[in-house]
Write a structure and sequence with these properties.
Elements (H helix, E strand, L loop, with lengths): L27 E2 L5 E3 L2 E2 H8 L3 E5 H14 L4 E5 L6 H9 L3 E4 L2 H10 L6 E3 L6 H10 L3 E4 L3 H9 L6 E8 L21 E2 L4 H10 L4 E7 L10 H21 L5 E3 L17 H19 L5 E4 L3 H4 L3 E13 L2 E6 L8 H5 L6 E2 L8 E7 L8 E9 L7 E4 L21 E5 L2 E6 L4 H7 L4
Parallel strand pairs: 4-20, 5-6, 5-13, 6-7, 7-8, 8-9, 9-10, 9-11, 11-12, 12-13, 15-17
Antiparallel strand pairs: 1-2, 2-3, 4-14, 14-15, 14-19, 16-19, 17-18, 20-21
The chain binds pyridoxal-5'-phosphate.
EC number: 4.1.1.20
Enzyme class: lyase
Protein name: Diaminopimelate decarboxylase
Protein backbone atom coordinates (compact mmCIF):
# COMPACT_ATOMS: atom_id res chain seq x y z
CA UNK A 1 0.00 0.00 0.00
CA UNK A 2 3.04 2.29 0.09
CA UNK A 3 2.74 3.98 -3.29
CA UNK A 4 5.09 6.92 -3.71
CA UNK A 5 3.28 10.12 -4.49
CA UNK A 6 4.54 12.51 -7.14
CA UNK A 7 7.39 14.65 -5.82
CA UNK A 8 6.40 18.22 -5.19
CA UNK A 9 8.28 21.49 -4.96
CA UNK A 10 8.11 22.90 -1.47
CA UNK A 11 8.64 26.66 -1.31
CA UNK A 12 10.14 27.88 1.95
CA UNK A 13 7.67 29.15 4.52
CA UNK A 14 7.62 32.92 4.91
CA UNK A 15 8.58 32.43 8.54
CA UNK A 16 9.71 29.48 10.60
CA UNK A 17 6.89 28.03 12.67
CA UNK A 18 7.87 28.66 16.28
CA UNK A 19 8.28 25.85 18.81
CA UNK A 20 4.73 26.31 20.03
CA UNK A 21 3.18 26.13 16.56
CA UNK A 22 0.07 24.02 16.46
CA UNK A 23 1.18 22.54 13.11
CA UNK A 24 3.92 19.93 12.59
CA UNK A 25 7.32 21.46 11.78
CA UNK A 26 7.15 20.01 8.25
CA UNK A 27 4.00 22.00 7.40
CA UNK A 28 4.35 23.98 4.17
CA UNK A 29 2.05 26.13 2.10
CA UNK A 30 2.21 25.01 -1.52
CA UNK A 31 2.25 27.30 -4.54
CA UNK A 32 -1.20 25.95 -5.33
CA UNK A 33 -2.37 27.39 -2.02
CA UNK A 34 -2.85 23.97 -0.43
CA UNK A 35 -0.97 22.68 2.61
CA UNK A 36 1.58 19.84 2.73
CA UNK A 37 2.89 17.87 5.69
CA UNK A 38 5.89 15.56 5.51
CA UNK A 39 6.20 16.62 1.88
CA UNK A 40 2.72 15.33 0.97
CA UNK A 41 -0.16 17.64 0.01
CA UNK A 42 -3.06 17.10 2.40
CA UNK A 43 -5.57 17.33 -0.46
CA UNK A 44 -3.89 14.30 -2.08
CA UNK A 45 -4.21 12.38 1.16
CA UNK A 46 -7.89 13.26 1.43
CA UNK A 47 -8.43 11.96 -2.11
CA UNK A 48 -6.39 8.82 -1.65
CA UNK A 49 -7.60 7.69 1.78
CA UNK A 50 -10.98 9.44 1.90
CA UNK A 51 -12.20 11.63 4.76
CA UNK A 52 -12.26 11.85 7.68
CA UNK A 53 -8.65 10.76 7.77
CA UNK A 54 -5.88 11.14 10.32
CA UNK A 55 -2.40 12.00 9.10
CA UNK A 56 0.59 11.38 11.35
CA UNK A 57 3.98 12.91 10.63
CA UNK A 58 6.54 10.21 11.43
CA UNK A 59 9.45 12.64 11.68
CA UNK A 60 7.53 14.86 14.08
CA UNK A 61 6.91 11.83 16.34
CA UNK A 62 10.57 10.84 16.20
CA UNK A 63 11.80 14.39 16.82
CA UNK A 64 9.48 14.77 19.79
CA UNK A 65 10.65 11.46 21.24
CA UNK A 66 14.25 12.66 20.76
CA UNK A 67 13.50 15.98 22.45
CA UNK A 68 12.70 14.16 25.70
CA UNK A 69 15.57 11.70 25.32
CA UNK A 70 18.10 14.49 24.84
CA UNK A 71 16.61 16.68 27.59
CA UNK A 72 16.85 13.77 30.05
CA UNK A 73 19.68 11.51 28.82
CA UNK A 74 19.89 9.67 32.16
CA UNK A 75 16.15 9.05 32.47
CA UNK A 76 13.76 6.57 30.91
CA UNK A 77 11.16 8.13 28.62
CA UNK A 78 8.03 5.98 28.57
CA UNK A 79 5.46 6.91 25.94
CA UNK A 80 1.87 6.65 27.23
CA UNK A 81 0.36 4.33 24.66
CA UNK A 82 -3.21 5.34 25.37
CA UNK A 83 -2.60 8.63 23.51
CA UNK A 84 -2.25 6.78 20.20
CA UNK A 85 -0.94 3.32 19.46
CA UNK A 86 -0.44 1.22 16.35
CA UNK A 87 2.30 -1.08 15.10
CA UNK A 88 4.22 1.58 13.17
CA UNK A 89 4.11 3.94 16.16
CA UNK A 90 5.51 1.18 18.37
CA UNK A 91 8.33 0.56 15.91
CA UNK A 92 9.25 4.27 15.78
CA UNK A 93 9.26 4.52 19.58
CA UNK A 94 11.32 1.34 19.91
CA UNK A 95 13.84 2.67 17.39
CA UNK A 96 14.04 5.94 19.34
CA UNK A 97 14.83 4.01 22.51
CA UNK A 98 11.66 4.86 24.39
CA UNK A 99 9.87 2.80 26.99
CA UNK A 100 6.11 2.28 26.86
CA UNK A 101 3.17 2.70 29.25
CA UNK A 102 0.14 0.52 28.70
CA UNK A 103 -3.01 0.09 30.73
CA UNK A 104 -4.70 -3.00 29.32
CA UNK A 105 -4.04 -6.49 28.01
CA UNK A 106 -5.03 -5.15 24.58
CA UNK A 107 -2.33 -2.47 24.47
CA UNK A 108 0.12 -4.97 25.92
CA UNK A 109 -0.65 -7.66 23.33
CA UNK A 110 -0.31 -5.14 20.48
CA UNK A 111 3.10 -4.03 21.78
CA UNK A 112 4.32 -7.59 22.33
CA UNK A 113 3.02 -8.71 18.93
CA UNK A 114 4.95 -5.85 17.33
CA UNK A 115 8.13 -6.95 19.09
CA UNK A 116 8.38 -4.06 21.54
CA UNK A 117 10.75 -5.27 24.31
CA UNK A 118 8.59 -6.32 27.27
CA UNK A 119 11.17 -5.28 29.84
CA UNK A 120 10.68 -1.67 28.67
CA UNK A 121 6.91 -1.82 29.24
CA UNK A 122 5.09 -0.46 32.31
CA UNK A 123 1.55 -1.59 33.11
CA UNK A 124 -0.73 0.97 34.76
CA UNK A 125 -4.37 0.98 35.77
CA UNK A 126 -6.59 1.70 38.73
CA UNK A 127 -8.59 -1.46 38.04
CA UNK A 128 -6.46 -4.06 36.34
CA UNK A 129 -8.43 -7.12 35.31
CA UNK A 130 -7.20 -10.66 35.95
CA UNK A 131 -6.49 -10.83 32.18
CA UNK A 132 -4.42 -7.61 32.33
CA UNK A 133 -2.26 -8.99 35.15
CA UNK A 134 -1.96 -12.47 33.66
CA UNK A 135 -0.95 -11.03 30.28
CA UNK A 136 1.62 -8.75 31.90
CA UNK A 137 3.20 -11.64 33.79
CA UNK A 138 3.12 -13.97 30.79
CA UNK A 139 4.80 -11.39 28.54
CA UNK A 140 7.25 -10.37 31.25
CA UNK A 141 6.59 -6.62 31.48
CA UNK A 142 9.34 -4.64 33.16
CA UNK A 143 7.17 -2.85 35.74
CA UNK A 144 3.65 -3.05 37.12
CA UNK A 145 2.36 0.03 38.93
CA UNK A 146 0.39 -0.85 42.06
CA UNK A 147 -2.62 1.44 42.30
CA UNK A 148 -4.56 -0.01 45.24
CA UNK A 149 -3.90 -2.00 48.38
CA UNK A 150 -6.10 -4.91 47.34
CA UNK A 151 -4.11 -5.45 44.21
CA UNK A 152 -0.88 -6.25 46.08
CA UNK A 153 -1.74 -9.74 47.32
CA UNK A 154 -3.74 -10.46 44.16
CA UNK A 155 -0.72 -9.72 41.95
CA UNK A 156 1.73 -11.53 44.23
CA UNK A 157 -0.42 -14.68 44.09
CA UNK A 158 -0.19 -14.70 40.28
CA UNK A 159 3.61 -14.43 40.13
CA UNK A 160 5.04 -17.92 39.46
CA UNK A 161 7.14 -19.47 42.24
CA UNK A 162 10.82 -18.70 41.94
CA UNK A 163 10.33 -15.41 40.08
CA UNK A 164 9.81 -11.81 41.15
CA UNK A 165 7.85 -9.03 39.51
CA UNK A 166 9.19 -5.48 39.64
CA UNK A 167 6.59 -3.01 40.82
CA UNK A 168 6.16 0.68 41.60
CA UNK A 169 3.59 2.13 43.99
CA UNK A 170 1.48 4.96 42.58
CA UNK A 171 1.14 7.69 45.16
CA UNK A 172 -1.04 10.79 45.28
CA UNK A 173 1.10 13.79 46.22
CA UNK A 174 -1.90 16.10 46.72
CA UNK A 175 -1.22 18.50 43.83
CA UNK A 176 -4.02 19.96 41.72
CA UNK A 177 -2.73 20.41 38.17
CA UNK A 178 -4.15 19.84 34.72
CA UNK A 179 -6.52 21.41 32.25
CA UNK A 180 -9.81 19.85 33.42
CA UNK A 181 -11.09 18.06 36.54
CA UNK A 182 -11.52 14.90 34.47
CA UNK A 183 -7.74 14.73 34.02
CA UNK A 184 -6.50 15.93 37.46
CA UNK A 185 -5.04 12.80 38.99
CA UNK A 186 -2.60 14.25 41.52
CA UNK A 187 -5.18 15.12 44.18
CA UNK A 188 -7.05 13.14 46.82
CA UNK A 189 -10.67 12.33 46.09
CA UNK A 190 -10.16 10.89 42.59
CA UNK A 191 -9.81 7.24 41.66
CA UNK A 192 -6.05 6.91 41.04
CA UNK A 193 -3.22 6.09 43.41
CA UNK A 194 -2.60 5.98 47.15
CA UNK A 195 -2.45 9.29 49.05
CA UNK A 196 0.75 10.24 50.83
CA UNK A 197 -1.07 12.51 53.26
CA UNK A 198 -3.45 9.89 54.66
CA UNK A 199 -0.74 7.25 55.07
CA UNK A 200 -2.21 4.89 52.45
CA UNK A 201 0.93 5.17 50.31
CA UNK A 202 3.22 4.17 53.18
CA UNK A 203 0.90 1.34 54.16
CA UNK A 204 0.97 0.00 50.58
CA UNK A 205 4.76 0.17 50.47
CA UNK A 206 4.95 -1.88 53.68
CA UNK A 207 2.57 -4.47 52.25
CA UNK A 208 4.55 -4.75 49.02
CA UNK A 209 7.78 -5.18 51.01
CA UNK A 210 6.09 -8.11 52.77
CA UNK A 211 5.53 -9.93 49.46
CA UNK A 212 8.63 -11.95 48.50
CA UNK A 213 7.44 -12.28 44.88
CA UNK A 214 7.22 -8.53 44.41
CA UNK A 215 10.30 -6.35 44.05
CA UNK A 216 9.50 -2.75 44.89
CA UNK A 217 11.74 -0.53 42.75
CA UNK A 218 10.24 2.86 43.48
CA UNK A 219 7.37 5.31 43.62
CA UNK A 220 5.20 6.60 40.79
CA UNK A 221 2.93 9.60 40.44
CA UNK A 222 1.01 11.16 37.57
CA UNK A 223 -0.41 14.59 38.24
CA UNK A 224 -2.80 15.02 35.33
CA UNK A 225 -2.84 16.23 31.76
CA UNK A 226 -2.20 19.44 29.80
CA UNK A 227 0.12 20.82 32.50
CA UNK A 228 2.10 23.73 31.04
CA UNK A 229 4.07 24.72 34.14
CA UNK A 230 7.05 22.90 35.67
CA UNK A 231 6.09 24.06 39.18
CA UNK A 232 3.68 21.18 40.01
CA UNK A 233 6.36 18.64 39.02
CA UNK A 234 8.92 20.34 41.26
CA UNK A 235 6.43 20.20 44.12
CA UNK A 236 5.83 16.52 43.35
CA UNK A 237 9.58 15.81 43.58
CA UNK A 238 9.65 17.51 46.98
CA UNK A 239 6.72 15.46 48.31
CA UNK A 240 7.94 12.17 46.85
CA UNK A 241 11.43 12.63 48.25
CA UNK A 242 9.77 13.46 51.57
CA UNK A 243 8.05 10.10 51.48
CA UNK A 244 11.25 8.32 50.39
CA UNK A 245 13.02 9.89 53.32
CA UNK A 246 10.35 8.69 55.74
CA UNK A 247 10.40 5.17 54.25
CA UNK A 248 14.16 5.03 54.77
CA UNK A 249 13.94 6.38 58.33
CA UNK A 250 11.05 4.18 59.46
CA UNK A 251 11.46 1.04 57.37
CA UNK A 252 15.13 1.15 56.38
CA UNK A 253 14.49 0.93 52.62
CA UNK A 254 15.68 2.98 49.63
CA UNK A 255 14.63 2.61 46.01
CA UNK A 256 16.48 2.91 42.69
CA UNK A 257 13.67 4.48 40.62
CA UNK A 258 11.23 7.40 40.60
CA UNK A 259 8.52 7.79 37.97
CA UNK A 260 7.03 11.28 37.70
CA UNK A 261 4.39 10.47 35.07
CA UNK A 262 3.42 12.66 32.15
CA UNK A 263 0.80 15.29 31.42
CA UNK A 264 2.97 17.72 29.47
CA UNK A 265 0.93 20.39 27.71
CA UNK A 266 0.81 21.00 23.97
CA UNK A 267 -0.80 23.95 22.17
CA UNK A 268 -4.19 23.32 20.54
CA UNK A 269 -4.64 26.89 19.37
CA UNK A 270 -2.20 29.68 18.62
CA UNK A 271 -1.02 31.29 21.82
CA UNK A 272 -1.65 28.20 23.99
CA UNK A 273 1.09 27.39 26.47
CA UNK A 274 3.24 24.31 25.90
CA UNK A 275 5.64 22.57 28.27
CA UNK A 276 9.25 22.67 27.12
CA UNK A 277 11.26 19.52 28.04
CA UNK A 278 14.52 21.42 28.60
CA UNK A 279 13.51 23.66 31.52
CA UNK A 280 11.48 20.75 32.88
CA UNK A 281 14.58 18.56 32.84
CA UNK A 282 16.77 21.22 34.37
CA UNK A 283 14.48 22.11 37.24
CA UNK A 284 13.25 18.60 38.02
CA UNK A 285 16.68 16.96 38.01
CA UNK A 286 18.26 19.72 40.09
CA UNK A 287 15.39 19.66 42.61
CA UNK A 288 15.70 15.87 42.83
CA UNK A 289 19.47 16.02 43.33
CA UNK A 290 19.14 18.77 45.93
CA UNK A 291 16.37 17.12 47.95
CA UNK A 292 18.08 13.73 47.88
CA UNK A 293 21.36 15.30 49.02
CA UNK A 294 19.56 17.03 51.93
CA UNK A 295 17.88 13.78 52.93
CA UNK A 296 21.06 11.76 52.37
CA UNK A 297 19.25 9.51 49.91
CA UNK A 298 20.64 7.95 46.72
CA UNK A 299 19.31 9.83 43.66
CA UNK A 300 16.83 7.49 41.97
CA UNK A 301 16.73 7.03 38.20
CA UNK A 302 13.95 9.14 36.75
CA UNK A 303 11.17 8.04 34.41
CA UNK A 304 8.88 10.47 32.58
CA UNK A 305 5.76 9.46 30.67
CA UNK A 306 4.85 11.85 27.86
CA UNK A 307 1.84 10.78 25.78
CA UNK A 308 0.08 13.73 24.21
CA UNK A 309 3.34 15.71 23.95
CA UNK A 310 4.80 13.14 21.54
CA UNK A 311 1.76 12.11 19.49
CA UNK A 312 -0.57 15.13 19.62
CA UNK A 313 1.27 17.73 17.53
CA UNK A 314 2.28 15.06 14.97
CA UNK A 315 -1.33 14.43 13.94
CA UNK A 316 -3.64 16.35 11.66
CA UNK A 317 -7.28 15.41 11.09
CA UNK A 318 -8.65 15.90 7.59
CA UNK A 319 -12.34 16.46 7.03
CA UNK A 320 -14.43 17.34 4.03
CA UNK A 321 -17.09 20.01 4.30
CA UNK A 322 -20.59 18.59 3.90
CA UNK A 323 -22.78 21.61 4.59
CA UNK A 324 -22.53 25.36 5.14
CA UNK A 325 -25.43 27.25 6.68
CA UNK A 326 -26.39 30.35 8.64
CA UNK A 327 -28.55 29.91 11.72
CA UNK A 328 -29.38 32.91 13.82
CA UNK A 329 -26.29 35.07 13.65
CA UNK A 330 -23.89 32.17 13.23
CA UNK A 331 -22.31 30.63 10.18
CA UNK A 332 -21.88 26.87 10.56
CA UNK A 333 -19.55 24.68 8.56
CA UNK A 334 -20.39 20.99 9.05
CA UNK A 335 -17.77 18.35 8.28
CA UNK A 336 -17.92 14.59 7.71
CA UNK A 337 -16.46 13.64 11.13
CA UNK A 338 -16.75 14.97 14.66
CA UNK A 339 -17.28 13.53 18.11
CA UNK A 340 -16.99 9.92 16.90
CA UNK A 341 -13.37 10.46 15.86
CA UNK A 342 -12.61 13.29 18.31
CA UNK A 343 -14.55 13.17 21.58
CA UNK A 344 -12.37 15.81 23.29
CA UNK A 345 -14.63 18.80 22.64
CA UNK A 346 -17.57 16.91 24.13
CA UNK A 347 -15.54 15.50 27.05
CA UNK A 348 -13.49 18.51 28.08
CA UNK A 349 -14.95 21.44 26.17
CA UNK A 350 -11.78 21.74 24.09
CA UNK A 351 -11.79 23.89 20.97
CA UNK A 352 -9.48 23.50 18.00
CA UNK A 353 -8.20 25.65 15.19
CA UNK A 354 -9.01 24.81 11.57
CA UNK A 355 -7.45 25.63 8.22
CA UNK A 356 -8.60 25.30 4.63
CA UNK A 357 -5.87 22.96 3.38
CA UNK A 358 -7.02 21.83 -0.04
CA UNK A 359 -6.89 25.04 -2.08
CA UNK A 360 -6.13 28.74 -2.03
CA UNK A 361 -8.80 31.37 -1.51
CA UNK A 362 -8.52 35.11 -1.87
CA UNK A 363 -12.04 35.70 -0.57
CA UNK A 364 -11.97 37.65 2.73
CA UNK A 365 -12.30 35.57 5.87
CA UNK A 366 -15.48 35.32 7.90
CA UNK A 367 -16.07 34.07 11.41
CA UNK A 368 -17.48 30.56 11.42
CA UNK A 369 -18.14 27.63 13.74
CA UNK A 370 -16.97 24.24 12.53
CA UNK A 371 -19.18 21.41 13.73
CA UNK A 372 -19.27 17.64 13.29
CA UNK A 373 -21.93 15.48 11.71
CA UNK A 374 -23.21 13.77 14.85
CA UNK A 375 -26.59 14.08 16.49
CA UNK A 376 -25.58 16.32 19.39
CA UNK A 377 -25.36 20.09 19.59
CA UNK A 378 -22.12 19.70 21.58
CA UNK A 379 -20.40 18.21 18.54
CA UNK A 380 -18.37 21.38 17.91
CA UNK A 381 -14.77 21.24 16.67
CA UNK A 382 -13.89 24.92 16.41
CA UNK A 383 -15.79 27.99 17.53
CA UNK A 384 -15.57 31.45 15.96
CA UNK A 385 -12.64 30.68 13.67
CA UNK A 386 -11.73 32.74 10.64
CA UNK A 387 -12.07 30.84 7.36
CA UNK A 388 -12.31 32.09 3.77
CA UNK A 389 -15.82 33.32 3.01
CA UNK A 390 -16.19 30.99 0.03
CA UNK A 391 -15.93 27.73 2.03
CA UNK A 392 -18.19 25.21 0.29
CA UNK A 393 -19.09 21.53 0.40
CA UNK A 394 -16.20 19.40 -0.83
CA UNK A 395 -13.50 21.62 0.64
CA UNK A 396 -10.85 19.85 2.72
CA UNK A 397 -10.22 21.25 6.22
CA UNK A 398 -7.27 20.34 8.43
CA UNK A 399 -7.38 20.28 12.23
CA UNK A 400 -3.92 20.29 13.87
CA UNK A 401 -2.92 18.84 17.26
CA UNK A 402 -5.06 15.78 16.47
CA UNK A 403 -2.53 13.02 17.08
CA UNK A 404 -3.38 12.16 20.69
CA UNK A 405 -6.63 10.97 22.29
CA UNK A 406 -8.63 11.14 19.06
CA UNK A 407 -8.17 7.84 17.24
CA UNK A 408 -7.52 6.01 20.52
CA UNK A 409 -10.81 7.32 21.95
CA UNK A 410 -12.84 7.10 18.74
CA UNK A 411 -16.22 5.38 18.78
CA UNK A 412 -18.69 4.02 16.28
CA UNK A 413 -21.35 6.57 17.28
CA UNK A 414 -24.04 6.90 14.61
CA UNK A 415 -22.41 3.86 12.96
CA UNK A 416 -19.90 6.08 11.24
CA UNK A 417 -16.82 3.87 10.94
CA UNK A 418 -13.64 4.96 12.66
CA UNK A 419 -11.28 6.84 10.33
CA UNK A 420 -8.05 5.56 8.79
CA UNK A 421 -4.58 6.72 9.87
CA UNK A 422 -1.90 7.45 7.28
CA UNK A 423 1.76 8.21 7.99
CA UNK A 424 3.70 10.78 6.03
CA UNK A 425 7.46 11.20 5.78
CA UNK A 426 9.80 12.63 3.14
CA UNK A 427 7.18 13.01 0.44
CA UNK A 428 5.60 9.59 0.89
CA UNK A 429 2.39 8.46 2.51
CA UNK A 430 1.31 5.00 3.65
CA UNK A 431 -1.71 3.61 5.37
CA UNK A 432 -1.20 2.53 8.99
CA UNK A 433 -4.78 1.83 10.07
CA UNK A 434 -7.53 1.25 7.51
CA UNK A 435 -10.98 2.76 7.76
CA UNK A 436 -13.56 0.83 9.77
CA UNK A 437 -16.15 -0.26 7.23
CA UNK A 438 -19.87 -0.80 7.63
CA UNK A 439 -19.08 -4.48 7.10
CA UNK A 440 -16.75 -4.39 10.14
CA UNK A 441 -19.61 -2.98 12.18
CA UNK A 442 -22.20 -5.37 10.79
CA UNK A 443 -20.26 -8.57 11.53
CA UNK A 444 -20.21 -7.80 15.25
CA UNK A 445 -23.97 -7.64 15.33
CA UNK A 446 -24.70 -11.33 15.69
CA UNK A 447 -28.19 -11.34 17.23
CA UNK A 448 -31.50 -11.33 15.44
C1 LIG B 1 -2.34 9.29 30.55
C2 LIG B 1 -1.11 9.03 31.32
C3 LIG B 1 0.10 9.56 30.90
C4 LIG B 1 0.22 10.49 29.72
O1 LIG B 1 -0.53 11.63 29.85
P1 LIG B 1 -0.34 12.79 28.75
O2 LIG B 1 -1.23 13.87 29.20
O3 LIG B 1 -0.76 12.20 27.45
O4 LIG B 1 1.11 13.12 28.75
C5 LIG B 1 1.24 9.23 31.60
N1 LIG B 1 1.18 8.42 32.67
C6 LIG B 1 0.03 7.88 33.11
C7 LIG B 1 0.04 6.99 34.29
C8 LIG B 1 -1.15 8.17 32.45
O5 LIG B 1 -2.30 7.65 32.90
Amino acid sequence: MSLPLAPIALPPLPEEPGPASVWPASTRTLRSGGTAIGGVPLAELADRFGTPCYVIDEDEVRNRARAWRSALPDADVAYAGKAFLCRAMLRWLDEEGLHLDVCSAGELELAAHTGFPADRIVLHGNAKSPADLATALRLGVGRIVIDSTGEIARLAALVPPGSRQRVLVRVVPGIAAGAHTAVRTGVEGQKFGLPIAGGEAEDAVVRVLGQPRLELVGLHCHLGSQIASVDPYVTAVRRLVGLLSRLRDVHGVTFPELDLGGGFAIPYRDGDQALDPRPYALRVTSELALRCAHADLPVPRLTVEPGRWIAGPAGVALYRVLAVKSTGDRLFVAVDGGMSDNPRPALYGVRYTVRLVGRASSVPERTMTVVGRHCEAGDVLAEDVALPGDIRPGDVLGVPASGAYHVSMASAYNLVGRPPVAAVSEGRARLLIRRETLEDLRVRDVGE
